[in-house]
Amino acid sequence: MKLDFARADMTVHRIIDLEAPFLHAMEMLPALTPQLLDENRHWLQDSLDESDAFKLCYQAYLVRTPHHNILVDSCLGNHKSRPRPEWHMKTNDSFMRGLARLGLTPADIDYVMCTHLHGDHVGWNTQLVNGEWVPTFSNARYVFSKREMEWASAEDKKVPLAPYQDSVLPVIRKGMAELVEDNYALGDHVRLLPTPGHTEGHVSFCFGRERDELVVTGDLIHVPLQMRYPELNFARDKDPELAQKTRRNFLERYCDTPTLCCTSHFPPPSAGRVRRWGDGYRMDYSN
Predict the structure, then answer these.
(1) Which residues make beta-bridge pairs with 282?
(2) Which of 32, 124, 202, 281 has a beta carbon 3.0–4.6 Å from 77's, enabling a disulfide?
(3) Contact 235/29 with Cβ under 8 angstroms?
(4) Whole-angstrom distance, CA of residue 217 vs CA of residue 243
């Protein structure tokens, strides 16, 4: 299982928090038909379990540029109260072991960049210490889309959002958050790419000095079948029409280019290059 990739003057590492079945294919992609699923079953072996539930990999990407250690998304975290049983009050050490494998501790992370504020992407932002949620990455700046943060803050005032309360607010209260606009860049290696639809302020992050050597997609796309058929929306996309448009534009942008697309939930190896497949696309995992 490949975990590490070298690109130009950078390296990128997959850090896996959990791998588990999520939802039945028909529930996860409401427009999917049994016939379409059967037509594609032969190449989806790694994506489906025996009951046709999509298997998801919950992972972060650690990108080492010449200047910084940057973590994109922070997975599920531990001891968090969540609605799904495999997420709820989790206590595994996979994430921290993934960091340690790279010779890093949480204190070595310079930036944590969040594609959006759902619970499976911000969980390790904080950890429970003496009954209090404290930022896990004590020396990091946490980068959030200003638009996404405004949405989450407004929603939290209506009904408290657990991920916002336990994984975002503690960072803000410590003065460690940066709320950024769509034109955000960090030096000459990091750029924000707006990819709305799944959430209003969803973003992806691009890395590379002169071109996009790699891009971390977040929840722009959840499973490989959505590459073949970009019109298949995830049931929980906030704006399905916009999500479709964003997904196809993204895939067309990187199709048949050298850019390594690092997906958040695809089965291993999870990161590859976009190639055309009829009217859709596929992931090429060859080197």
Answers:
(1) 275
(2) 124
(3) yes
(4) 13
